[in-house]
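INFO batch 0412 | record 1 of 1 | parsing
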Amino acid sequence: MLLASRRRLRAEVLIVLGLSLGQSAVYSVVQLLDKMTRAPLSEATSTLNRSQSTREYFDLTYQLLDILFALVPVVLVFYFLSVHSSANREVDGSAVGRGGSAFARLGFNLARPGKDVLQGLGLAAAIGIPSLGLYGVGRALGITTAIVPSGLDAYWWTVPVLILSAMRHAIVEEVIVVGYLMDRFGKFGWSTPVAIVVSAVLRGSYHLYQGFGPFFGNFVMGLVFAWIYTKTKRVMPLVIAHALLDIVAFVGFSLFGKAVGLG
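INFO prediction complete | emitting tokens
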């Protein structure tokens, strides 16, 4: 019975990753190889938040649709967690996760907003400043592409869409790569250190299209975030920190990048 349950959970994880960040990791590896076989990585560019149409409101529509559909795997994750918890409750009468829901189980709720925000701010500062230095080192060594955080044209909706995009990335990555996978890896019988490393490797791998510097930086970020999750059992501070980092990068570049010679 236990073996069958683990097999089902492995299939479930493969489905979730195949529809989300596992797919992104595969594409990222291919994109890295494409860039490396064209020219040195130092001459390549990675553009985030690309424009998808020269027509303003079609571009807006595409951007919003991308954000919306990218969140579907997160909904699937909470569905799987709820179904599994409900099944366990029927068998042994246990509660459905901590606090009675899949959201509480991963700590993706507003149970402690003040503490979550403070922890998120602290994490953003601790991760963001070293990341800038690592990017500079990677560029100097020629192992990191030039990263353009926003390729959107300047419209009235550009900044709100970039903020939504940052929130999308934060929710998808922290809920799936940290909360969900750490939960499932534990049920596979993996030790906590192994689960943390695998989660961090996945995080780094879907950033490989930006070069080896971002892979390493995101791997370290993954180790820190997953370790913190094992202590707090809450993804909300991680989501807040990740969202803040991306908002500063996306919106800051959109507003000031060209002014300081980065565009």
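INFO post-check: The chain has one domain: 2-256.
INFO record closed
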